[in-house]
Amino acid sequence: MAATGTWTKGVGAVQDGPRPGRPVRGSETGRPLMAALDLFGRRWALRVVWELRDGDLGFRQLQARCDDMSSSVLRQRLRELTAARLVRQHDDGRYALTELGADVYRSLRPLISWSRRWAAELTDDT
């Protein structure tokens, strides 16, 4: 599936989000990690991936699971994550993680484990 999008010249994201090989916020190198950090550092981006981890959701379902984030921000994040080939939209309008998007979720598992240890450590300090 080919990604399409409008890109602007110069540093920063374009309408459809950061991509490896192009300058992004905070880096002109185009390194894949810098593009990923730009994408995942955007408000709600990782939350969208998280909420799609268990299966397909419609726009309103996804919005509700994301604490009723604004529809304009959700549309923008979905556009960016789709352009990055992490999310796809079915013909019925529901959104799902692609295999690459599921890889992102699997990559987060160690961070999830660490966050639990961190929370326990902070709780022990009180």
Provide the descriptors you would attach to this structure in a database record.
single chain, mainly alpha, 126 residues, Arc Repressor Mutant, subunit A, globular, DNA-binding, transcription regulation, DNA binding, two-stranded antiparallel ribbon
Task: Explain what this protein looks like in three dimensions.
- Helix content is 49%, strand content 5%.
- The chain is mainly alpha-helical.
- It has one domain: Orthogonal Bundle (Arc Repressor Mutant, subunit A).
- Strands 1-2 form a two-stranded antiparallel sheet.
- The protein is globular.
- The termini are far apart.
- Residues 1-14 have low confidence and may be disordered.
Describe the secondary-structure layout:
Layout: H1 32-40, H2 45-51, H3 59-65, H4 71-83, E1 87-89, E2 95-97, H5 99-124
Antiparallel strand pairs: 1-2
Task: Quickly describe the structure.
The chain is mainly alpha-helical.
Which percent range describes the beta-strand content? Answer: under 5%
Low-confidence stretches: 1-14
Largest sheet: number of strands, sense, barrel closure: 2 strands, antiparallel
- Helical content, roughly? 40-55%
CATH class: Mainly Alpha
Mean pLDDT: 87
User: Taking strands numbered 1, 2, ... along the chain, how are they ordered across the largest sheet?
Assistant: 1-2
Q: Please report the total strand number as a whole number.
A: 2
Shape: globular
> In angstroms, what separates the terminal alpha carbons?
51 Å
